[in-house]
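Researcher: Here's my situation. A collaborator sent me these components and asked whether they could plausibly form a single complex. I don't have experimental data yet, so a predicted model of the whole assembly would be a useful starting point for our discussion.
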Amino acid sequence: MSDTLVQELEARAGTATAEGPEWLEPVRRAARERFARTGFPSPRDEEWRFTPIGPIAQGTWRSAPAGARGVTREQLAPFLFGRDDWSTLVFVNGVYAEGLSRTALLPGVRAGSLAEALRADGALLEPHLSRHAPIEGSPFTALNTAFLGDGGVVHVGAGAELTAPIHLLFVTTAEAGGAVVHPRNLLVIERGARAAIIESYVTLAPGQSYWTNPVTEVSVAPGAWVEHTRIQRESERAYHVGLTHVDQYRDSHYRSFTLAMGGALARHNLHVRLNDENIETLMYGLYLTRGEQVADNHTAIYHDQPNCRSWEVYKGILDGRSRAVFNGKVFVKPEAQKTDAKQTNRNLLLSDGAKVDTKPQLEIFADDVKCTHGATVGRLDELARFYARSRGIPAPAADRLLTYAFAAEVIDEVALAPVREELDRLVLERLGGL
Amino acid sequence: MLEIRDLRATAGDKEILRGIDLTVNPGEVHAVMGPNGSGKSTLAQVLAGHPAYKVTGGSIRYRGEDLLELEPEARAQAGLFLAFQYPVEIPGVSNAYFLRAAYNEIRKANGLEEVDSMDFLDLLEEKLKLVEWEPEIMSRAVNSGFSGGEKKRNEILQMAVLEPTLAILDETDSGLDIDALRIVAAGVNKLRRPDNATIVVTHYQRLLNYIVPDFVHVLSGGRIVKSGGKELALELEARGYEWLEDAVGAAS
Ligand SMILES: Nc1ncnc2c1ncn2[C@@H]1O[C@H](COP(=O)(O)OP(=O)(O)OP(=O)(O)O)[C@@H](O)[C@H]1O
Ligand SMILES: [Mg+2]
């Protein structure tokens, strides 16, 4: 385990009480103690078997320097969807940068930094913070919780309807080289509200090695509708280990789209718990890897109650000698009758050197359910390729077209048109255009 | 326009085409008929450049060029078009996008300027009328979830947009209802010009009532065993193929 990290944890033990409300200290302390006890996961740990976290565990990571020194709004333009009017909370090297952020919020909606929220009112935070994502779930979550300090907090009040998405934008700069940041986000969508939230992890220093260790907790109250888009385009030399935990309640709809294309190693865990009846959950994912990149997606859906539907499609496009891991867990409790769960993982290999480990994991304890899963790993369809060529489209363009089409099928599921179009553009650019 | 000489082709170890000779001149319509498995689609696919088939002998000259030297895309760019017996689904690519990409690639290869999506839409609108189709079909993914008849009609729409010099229609009539057959045939006829040619592969005389051929060829066992005028199709309709196979058997 990293000695620097533990030293820092110990140093924090002395000072942390000063920051934030009283109830938070035991939370942080428990997380600190937990991580000090467990350390990083070992390769023998089933959950981490295919995830080469060696460089993280053996690294000496310092805290990122605070502040947005020298970063301008213009530099952020490539990450803003061309929409200057959307509310955007910008975090530079893990710390909220008010000067770069824009908030134009409707009544009933609050969005701001966690640091500020901790100073101002703990009342909203206390029932949620670290209540959704347990520190026992993963050493990385424990670590994030131990260092918990800043990130985005979005609260969409009962019945409020967001007309435009709220964007949480995490940017690293060259100064983050060799450092770790632990963003902590809380999204609370109240009863009957409707919201779209984007979470982006990007860099202004594409050559830098750093480590992002974010945790996002999401609460979707009865009857709420949420579209949550997560875009990870870290430096290709960076490490990213993130967790999103969602708790859904009666009659709610939560749809997630995750795009992962950055990082030397990028892992994301998405856990969704269906706490009541008549819930709908859609989980879409797309990962694009090249070179020596490793993209790892672990998803878990907990069907705790009857009459819920979950639908999951994750797709990957791998080039070079890159690797992808997909692990999809579906747990159906004995009382969760009439569950309808479908999971699909499809992978497209563009090279001989790329490799995929895909594993569905279904644990079903109810008998009157419809649960299916399927995983494929394949190449471009030769017949489709010939068909395109027979229409005059040259082979390389046909390949790009088919590769893009493979991705487009899942991007098309993004409900919000401007977000969908931007994702489309991003992916197209990464694939070398058409 | 097209000169096929003693063409032989295999798939794997299987010899499918066993010496085909066929000449097609500008303005002509040739019908190719023959029993299931006789090699009609193989001939069509070899002309389009399908990589699964290996040409083991003979030659194909197309507009003075050695067709076999050209990549499939170069053949299309040189005006060759195959309407597939089984059109391929391409999920995730809209029909409109695909067709515009093809149209522009062919223009580019012929030294013409690419057209933007607005101009293309105008062209498309006109061609959709030709096949009596609503524009909605264009926003769907290429052939994805299309009915059998819709796929065939889509092939003809592509042909109408790409305006080939040599069109090969492989059983475009199978799976079409009577109205669709009439529409598709009318489309093909409207596209006929003195400087282009059509090869129609079909099992049914009915199509040839609409698209009247100058020549009818019967393919059997990888060879053309009989050629004639349009009346040959009627004879085949009445008598089947067996008498021809017998005749060939007796002759060889
Ligand atoms: N790629 C292939 N690999 C192996 N055999 C093939 C291949 N393609 C065609 N064949 C075989 O070659 C023969 C001719 O097939 P082809 O599709 O050309 O027939 P066809 O005349 O078009 O028949 P139909 O009237 O049924 O469409 C058949 O026996 C078929 O099974
Ligand atoms: Mg055939």
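Model: Some features of this prediction you could bring to your collaborator: DSSP finds nine helices and twelve strands in chain B. Residues 81 and 195 of chain B are 15 Å apart (CA to CA).
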